[in-house]
Amino acid sequence: MNISVKEWFKSGAPWVWLTGGAVALNVIMVAGLLALIAVRGLGHFWPADVLQADYIESDGSRVVVIGEIADSEDVPAIQMREAGLEVAEGVETVRRDLLKVGNRDLLGSDFRWVTETGLQEIEHPPHLFVAERREWGNFYGFLRQVKQAGELVGEYKVGDADAAYDQLYAELEQRLDRALDIHDQIKDIEKHEIGAINATLERLRLRERSLELKGQLTAADQADIAASRAEQDESYKSLQARLEELYRQIGRDSLVAEVSDGQVVEIELSKVVQVFRPNAMGVGTKLGFYFGQIWAFMTDEPREANTEGGVFPAIFGTVMMVLLMSILVTPFGVVAAVYLREYAKQGTMTRLIRIAVNNLAGVPSIVYGVFGLGFFIYFLGGNIDQLFFPEALPAPTFGTPGLMWASLTLALLTLPVVIVATEEGLSRIPRSIREGSLALGATKAETLWKVVLPMASPAMMTGVILAVARAAGEVAPLMLVGVVKLAPSLPLDGNYPFIHLDQKFMHLGFHIYDVGFQSPNVEAARPLVYATALLLVVVIALLNLSAVAIRNRLREKYKALEH
Amino acid sequence: MKNTAPLSAPDLDFETPAAKRLRRYRRFKDRLASAVVGVGGISVIVAIMLIFIYLLYEVMPLFHAAEIKPWQHEGEEVVPYQRPGADADTWYLTAEEQAEVGLRVDATGLASFFDTRTGEVGLQQMLGQTEAGAVAFALGSESERTFALAHADGNLTFAKHQYKVSYPNDVRTITPSIAYPYADQELALAPGVGNTELLAVRDSENQLMAAALDDQGQLFVSRYSKDVNFITEEVEISTDHLQLELPTEKVVSLLISPETRWLFVARSDGLVVSVDLRDFDAPQIHDAVRVSDATITQARFLLGGNSLLVADSQGVTRQLFLVRDDSNNYELKEIRSFRDSTPSEIAEVAIEHRRKGFVVAEGNGQVSFYNSTAENLVLNEQLSDSGIAYLAMTPRANGLLLEQADGKVSFWKVENEHPEVSWSSLWEEVWYEGYQEPDYIWQSSASNDDFEPKYSLAPLSFGTLKAAFYAMLLATPLAICGAIYTAYFMAPAMRTKIKPFIELMEALPTVILGFLAGLWLAPFIEKQLATVFTLLLVVPIGVLVFAYGWHNLPKSIRLRVSEGWDVVVIIPVVIILAWLCLPLSSGVEQVLFDGDMRGYITRDLGITFDQRNALVVGLAMGFAVIPTIFSITEDAIFSVPKSLSNGSLALGATPWQTLQRVVLPTASPGIFSAVMIGMGRAVGETMIVLMATGNTPIMDLNIFEGMRTLAANIAVEMPESEVGSSHFRILFLAALVLFAFTFVVNTLAELIRQRLRRKYGSL
Q1: Quick check: B37 and A365 CB within 8 A?
Q2: Is B79 helix (H, G, I), strand (E, B) or coil?
Q3: I need a surface site. Which of B162, B231, B292, B697 has the fewest CB within 10 A?
Q4: What is the CATH number assigned to the segment(s) A312-562?
Q5: In chain B, count of helices (H) and strands (E)?
Q6: What pTM did the predictor assign?
């Protein structure tokens, strides 16, 4: 059936198609965004092959480059010509690659652009190894020697058998394991044992100051405090001695490697996190390595101003904050909803309150941040400090941004979500059920506790999960009330009082902002930001999906009652 | 069934003590629950309302009127005391930082330090290192506490009053003294100068300059250049003199600007003459401006020495400063004028030491506090019946020393926390010192103390609306069209999948969108600008062309896709179209823009292009707003009763006609409220704008430039703002504005939605 264009337009069908196009575009945008984050975030951990090639520079000289391709793009030939590069006539675009060449200490920068035409004799030598270092980023090169306390332990000369290289590499791995082991011990002592001593000393100082302020500092107390202090100093000294010994041990081994321009470099094993040979790995090994990297990302601490290493403190901080927030928000939200729906007299007033509460969900989150900073921190926190922690002044205890205020602010922010969801659940319960319960002689409280609340529990649960999902993704208010780029310790540790509500903490969302925009080396940190973003998206999507799932399951459970 | 048998009482006794106890206990529990829920519920609701009240509480002090009352000392009001020192005219009156010690220099050249609260005189000394008496006085700088005296023998004394604070026995003790920075140098006025009547002095980094008008009407300028000896590091002074040929009758004030380039001569006949002394050997009379038709009584510099305050006999004070135009010419311009409701001759003007504020005393004993940039009459009060001879502000602007015509000094407490904030300084164009014209400027930190922070909320509000506008430009059509299709044309089975999928995006943290916008989208758009605009054209046209082609396909193929599943076909089409756009756009770019659209825009159109611009923000924030609008619109359309649309279809209307004439009008309030709520979200969004723009507070609609929004501004500046300062409170005001705006918009939307629901509840 053929119809004319005019008639077709008259039928309105094209407009329907256009609206369909809008849906399609929405779906594509959403899916594309998720795909973009997923691909970039997950790709970061894959041990890509490292290439070695001869590169012809723009001035015609030849250099050897070693690195992995991080990105590629087509550049208009005009731009390249303007930049002083020679491009053959008739070529409109030039393909160029962003090569991650590492060795920042030798080359000055982690990355360099190369044109694809300039790369020649590309090969992937299996001997190439990558060393992830604690400083200066990745190292790419060929292993030549392994040394112990300056003495040669093993050596590989160009032209020797591959087996010799493998043997030397195995030697290196073994020694690296030892160094990592010692490194863990050092970290353990520095973090836990010395941290505990510092915490004790600080407590002693505060006790002394507190007694002094009250005018009750007796000679006995002073002696007591001095004795404890001496004791702590003693154990600190012994720890210090142990640390020195460990530091001496960890500095024992080193490796010697040759880099792209033939330079030979010696690297102490104490500075190396791990070594791997991507070109010598099979797909299976790579997969294993890949998941190992993901695991390390989630459980390690950040290094190098957050641009390397893992995000464990940020995950921990986020979870901790969200947990505290849900503990605060659930009872209050439910009580407010029960009051509004079950106890308050229904009328214009409750209707207005309902609208107001509903609308608070739409108030910009930064406004809550401002409120939290002004009211919670400066007003409440300031007064708490005056009343309960005068000994620490002028250093504020609660009068400064911290975990508790962040949780409280977000609890206030998500309160409307919980109230609205719970109320919806309560309004779903038929009157007849309440009346049935009352008719059987139950009091109102008993009806509420035994009948109404269990039936409304799916709704409450949904509300709390939605609140958690929202809180986990909020960053703007947190920037005012407690998150920092790098927290020295976790808000939960073995030192009294174990949960440090007054401490600042790290947060996944803020981590993204900070590393992506405030870090000195954005280019190197970018894959990490994608990975963090992916993690956050996954967590929040899971929370939302579980909200839906729980709601459906519980609804199913009470379905029989809903009629 | 009828039960005729009498019910025998069950063998239960409800009146046992245990049952009674249980009942009491249950009643108690019930009451307790009511109380707990009631108190808890109300307090939660109150806590929520507290946000509004607290924001208001922090903002209110901005708009508090200033207050003045007698200074309290040891629980009692300070009573006026006899002026310390000689019974002569006052040349100078001031106080130190804590406002505890005052200094009076009188016309005999005697400096008397005194307790500002009791009038008790402390250190007293005759000023100057010569025997000859002092004949004229000039203020150097209030903030540096310097002044100068001319002596009858033609010498000049440059002095500084200074204070040492110590805490013997934990009691604050302030010890004043007078120092002479050039004590070992001879500072002589020009030879031939008579008895100096008016003196001006200015000490700059490399020279000291003085202007003296003597009783014979001669005006001399002396320059004392400071040369630092490299070896001994001693300052050596070389002196030059100069006589200015100016009509010198009726001169009331001489003033030298801080960089010692300009000499201003204010005359009682209403003229202010400016003399350019840059070339000291050939001074130029730059300009003579008629400032007032009445008699000028006094002229002073405002803080920083950039603005002149000229007071006249009709009670008007005018602010003037030199405005530099594009060709570097200076012109002395009147910027604004100040008067109170009952103007009368101004006797004295005193300036604040750290703000652009000043105080004038009128002949009738009235004192008025003004803030210059805010054009704000802060306070107007009758403080004396006998007239005012002199007045001075304390450095922290919390006290006012006032010498009455009868020789008594009174000391007043001033509470004037935020004079720089007024309606005009927040929302109107303000002409700041050093600017060519009035402008809206947000610049919360000043480069040095002489310049004030600039608090115009206009560029921030403008930026907020600009960001929201571009976001809505993308989001509204996409979301509403999408919702129409999903609610009305889509197959139900597909709808249950697509809707939650799009709604999932509402939960996506905006920090992720902001990060992608800033680090991925912004560079992408800069490189592929042509692609973005080609997409805008190609995708709709392409979809239409495809639809027409589809329509003309044989039925056997067409009917394979059942009704309401068309989107499945469109998705790949849109993807292919977008794919085609890449090569197409580079072709278009070659033809139209010489292969570089971004360069074309800056070079040929002269439009500024920032990488992080409104286009990027619009796309990213539009994306964030789409799910909100989509979801509410979809609900509104879907809840239109089927009977309505079915009726229309039965009467022969096409689905599109039904949608246009029946469904959309019915759902329009719901759609409107969806747009409002989306708008509210776009206005308050912080992270996306923070990360996807350069955060420069400019007022320009250009889509290729950035902006700074209220929310982003709070996030950037709040952590560094000093608690209780004007800046802090203005940020609270910004938060309050955001709060009020979104709250009102959302309430409106909610009311409309509820009305809609009631209206169709019956259908």
Answers
A1: no
A2: coil
A3: B231
A4: 1.10.3720.10
A5: 17, 33
A6: 0.88
